[in-house]
Amino acid sequence: MAFALRKRGPSTFERAADGSMTLMEHVRELRNRLFRASLAILIGFGFGIWLATPVRELLSKPYCDLPQARDPETGLCKFVQLGVADVFLLNLKIGLWVGLIIAAPVWLYQLWAFIAPGLHRHERRYAYIFTTLAAPLFAAGAVLAFFVTTKGLEFLLDLSGGDISTTLEVTRYISFVTNLILLFGVAFEFPLLVLMLNFVGLASAKKLLSWWRVAVFVFFAFSAVVTPTPDPFGMTALAICLSALYFAAVGVAFINDRRKDRRKESFAGLSDDEVSPLELDDDPVVATPELELSGPVGASEPVAPPKPIDRRYDDMT
Description:
The protein has helices at 12-17, 23-64, 86-102, 104-115, 121-159, 170-187, 190-199, 205-210, 212-226, 232-265. By secondary structure, it is an all-alpha fold. Helix 5 runs antiparallel to helix 10 (232-265) and helix 7 runs parallel beside helix 10 (232-265). The relative contact order is 0.08.
């Protein structure tokens, strides 16, 4: 039995990379990738709704671990709900955030597959590096925000005194914690911005190092604004972490500049209009042997080659 093999044509990614796709094909590809990303987020949202209650309890842990938050009679941690559907809407909001995190590999890949064909090879390599570093940096910022929230709530609730009963509203508390986590996570992405300035050639490592006083001052001022409490502990923790990440980014910038300098050393003695040397191979040209022409298939004797025509191409007669 014979099987017919069909040659596989170029993929959509390959066609987009070489510029052979039309405008309508780009629009259709965008539609398909948005549909896949939305479907993944919808599936993640379903899992997020299922995990909404455990996540809400985890976010409530900094407040519920404090003795001021416990009911003296029952010992339970209680929040206040001002609206009838507040907890239901809060679970939907938490489920959406969890769904975005669960489906992040899918919708990030769809986004990358759409924009990657328009990037050069070195730009794709930088994008891989920055994406690999962005996730752990954001996670580190989120963990620090959780720690700062725990210490900040303890400081703020101690200021109320023993004659005041404090009960927090659930939606405002969760929004406070999630906004702080998001703010700290984004702040921890600042070293990537520093590296980007160096990798594209806008700022050298020496220039970045000369800005360290301004950078440290900005970090402490930013930390003083975003931390929820006036105590120096949370502010100092955030400012020290940002400063350490800045100096680490400057160290990577020094390594990148040294790599660029080594590449430039091989072309240091050449002028801009100098032609690169070419190695010539002076092998002699050898004439090929004459070929014997054979007659048609089945002929017994070879056919003699045709005689040359004794006439020039420009003869008129």
